[in-house]
């Protein structure tokens, strides 16, 4: 079993907590390491886990303070009481601030519906949660960017390389031992205010899927730090890529999804099945002080719903961002899972080319022109993102495909003038051969999809979502949201099975969240994707994405 330094773990505890006060009507109570919302199938605060409280209508603390072992149940005058039935326990705070509290839920807290009461400065505020035996939250190297944010890379250490953190420049290899960090495997005995004796929680069944392949787990249990769990696992053979998915199922409950970089050999990851970028080109980018990336996508999707005619919708999107060197190395800029992997995300779906750096100004707009028309993409609030105006989406992709051009006019202060094009033939389109046989998606089973045809040299991405009312629209200014998954597969495979662990992370169609009525139906899509490079002044890497696919309206049961 691998141990690590107090510095690494306490960074995970205090820095990687997700601050949600700007997004939620509160207080919100959830696992410290994921963004699973109340009402989701895998929501719950596990006995002995680290949880957060955020979004309260009043300050949670009069000051900001943290503590290390040995821990006290009162911190800066703040106490946190957890009541389940007639039993009340005192949570152990690691960190308190006016907007957020991070604390350990005592292992002796009974399972069931719970009321959590924070008392500070003579005032109290209460919230509700559900205490469960297990609900693992996996620590990641960066805070999720809100409910619509992308997934994050796992906080994973390569034990075969002296415990170094994984990154695109330090990818794991199949057969190597990794340590994953998080909280929520399950309860332990003993004093949780003191350093712990690491104990393998063999009574709690744990499965770790890496690249949707079940990996060998050599240890799963508490670390020496109260509330902090570690899982030691061997990278399975046959997986590779910069966004290889990782998910932990503990006690039958699926964790948040994260990714790790895996290289078949060497330490530089790559995704040759997705993007035409060699390991040498990755190495060059990793060595830059800053990395400027631009991406433009164009997609055409035909969706069929019961009782209505199929509708084809074309859409375009562009983003220009600057990564700091460390940021680029630790987070893949390509927000698409590696071939053979699946990931889960909350909120609004965007292009697989979404980036996370500082915005770059590429000019007033990006022009997208196709054989059947044009899609002007104005800049969105100086964000480095360019979106078509809502409600004005003319069809520009003909059924047979064609040649499409992209330019930014005279350019902008950060990205100079460019003009590029791509040609995509849809003469042999991707045909989803078992779509008619899918009347509903059984979330407890894997969902097989099969196809023929497709754009030569492309990959296939499968995605789906189930609507859910996650917010109170009037009070929070939020529209009903949804949870969706994305998987990537090689075109030549002709089929892919979306794993049950992925589908179980989605809410069943018709789920009511936060006492709000259920909203809408679910959708399942199978599409082609292809990515190519282009050149633009001021960019170190510039990418064009083209997607074409089919969708069906379908309930998730």
- Oligomer status: single chain
End-to-end Cα distance, whole Å, is: 40 Å
Taken together, the total number of domains comes to 3
Question: Gyration radius, to the nearest Å?
Answer: 24 Å
Anisotropy-based shape = globular
Extended strand count: 37
Low-pLDDT parts are: 1-26, 143-150, 348-355, 470-480
Q: Approximately how much beta-strand content do the residues carry?
A: 35-45%
Largest sheet: 11 strands, mixed
The level of helicity is: under 10%
Number of helices: 5
Structural notes for this entry:
There is one protein chain. With 557 residues, the chain is mainly β. It is built from 5 helices and 37 strands. The two termini are 40 Å apart. 51% of the residues are buried.
Quick overview of this protein structure:
The chain has 3 domains: 6-132, Immunoglobulins (Immunoglobulin-like, Sandwich); 137-262, Immunoglobulin-like, CATH 2.60.40; 279-553, no CATH class.
Secondary structure blueprint with pairings:
Layout lengths: L5 H10 L12 E4 L13 E2 L3 E5 L10 E2 L12 E6 L2 E4 L1 E5 L3 E5 L7 E9 L2 E10 L4 E2 L13 E2 L2 E3 L5 E2 L11 E7 L22 E5 L2 E10 L6 E6 L6 E10 L2 E2 L3 E5 L16 H8 L3 E15 L6 E14 H6 L11 E5 L11 E2 L5 E6 L2 E6 L6 E3 L13 E7 L11 E7 L5 E2 L14 E6 L6 E10 L4 H4 L4 E10 L4 E4 L1 H4 L18 E12 L7 E13 L4
Parallel strand pairs: 2-10, 12-21, 22-37
Antiparallel strand pairs: 1-3, 3-8, 4-7, 5-6, 5-9, 7-8, 9-10, 11-15, 13-14, 13-15, 15-18, 16-17, 16-19, 17-18, 19-20, 19-21, 22-23, 23-25, 23-28, 24-34, 26-27, 26-29, 29-30, 31-32, 32-35, 33-34, 33-36, 36-37
């Amino acid at each position: 079993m691998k141990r690590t330094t107090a510095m690494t773990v306490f960074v995970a505890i205090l820095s990687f907590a997700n601050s949600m006060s700007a997004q939620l009507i509160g207080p919100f109570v959830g696992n410290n390491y994921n963004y699973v919302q109340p009402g989701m199938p895998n929501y719950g605060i596990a006995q002995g886990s680290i949880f957060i409280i955020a979004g309260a209508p009043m300050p949670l603390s009069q000051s900001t303070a943290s503590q290390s072992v040995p821990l006290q149940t009162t911190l800066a005058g703040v106490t946190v009481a957890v009541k389940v039935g007639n039993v009340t326990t005192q949570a152990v705070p690691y960190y308190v601030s006016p907007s957020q509290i991070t604390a350990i839920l005592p292992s002796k807290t009974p399972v069931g519906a719970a009321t959590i009461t924070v008392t500070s400065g003579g005032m109290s505020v209460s919230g509700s949660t559900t205490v469960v035996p297990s609900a693992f939250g996996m620590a990641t190297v960066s805070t999720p960017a809100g409910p619509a944010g992308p997934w994050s890379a796992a906080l994973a250490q390569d034990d075969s390389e002296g415990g170094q953190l994984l990154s695109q420049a330090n990818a794991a290899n199949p057969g190597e031992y990794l340590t994953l960090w998080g909280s929520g495997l399950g309860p332990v005995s003993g004093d949780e205010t003191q350093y712990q004796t690491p104990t393998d929680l063999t009574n709690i069944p744990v499965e770790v899927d890496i690249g949707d392949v079940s990996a060998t787990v050599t240890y799963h249990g508490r670390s020496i730090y109260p509330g902090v769990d570690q899982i030691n696992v061997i990278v399975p053979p046959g997986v590779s890529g910069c966004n290889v998915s990782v998910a932990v199922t503990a006690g039958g409950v699926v964790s948040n999804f994260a990714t790790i970089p895996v290289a078949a050999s060497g330490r530089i990851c790559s995704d040759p099945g997705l993007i035409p970028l060699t390991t040498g080109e990755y190495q060059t980018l990793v060595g830059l002080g800053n990395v400027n990336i631009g991406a433009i996508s164009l997609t055409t999707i035909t969706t069929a719903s019961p009782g209505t005619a199929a509708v084809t919708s074309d859409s375009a999107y562009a983003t220009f961002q600057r990564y700091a060197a460390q940021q680029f190395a630790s987070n893949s800029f390509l927000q698409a899972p590696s071939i053979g992997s699946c990931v889960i995300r909350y909120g609004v779906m965007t292009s697989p080319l979404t980036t996370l750096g500082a915005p770059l100004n590429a000019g007033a707009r990006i022009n997208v022109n196709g054989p059947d028309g044009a899609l002007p993409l104005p800049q969105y609030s100086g964000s480095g993102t360019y979106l078509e105006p809502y409600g004005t989406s003319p069809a520009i992709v003909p059924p047979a495909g064609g040649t499409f051009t992209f330019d930014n006019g005279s350019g902008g202060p950060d990205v100079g003038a460019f003009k590029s094009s791509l040609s995509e033939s849809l003469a042999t389109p991707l045909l989803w051969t078992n779509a008619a046989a899918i009347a509903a998606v059984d979330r407890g089973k894997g969902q097989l999809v099969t196809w023929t045809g497709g754009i030569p040299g492309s990959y296939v991405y499968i995605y789906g979502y189930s609507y859910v009312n996650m917010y109170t629209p009037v009070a929070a200014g939020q529209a009903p949201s949804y949870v969706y998954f994305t998987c990537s597969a090689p075109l030549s495979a002709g089929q892919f099975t979306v794993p049950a662990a992925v589908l179980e992370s989605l809410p069943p169609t018709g789920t009511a969240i936060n006492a709000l009525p259920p909203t809408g139906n679910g959708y399942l899509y199978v599409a082609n994707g292809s990515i190519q490079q282009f050149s633009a002044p001021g960019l170190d890497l510039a990418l064009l994405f083209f997607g074409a696919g089919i969708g069906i309206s379908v309930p998730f049961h």
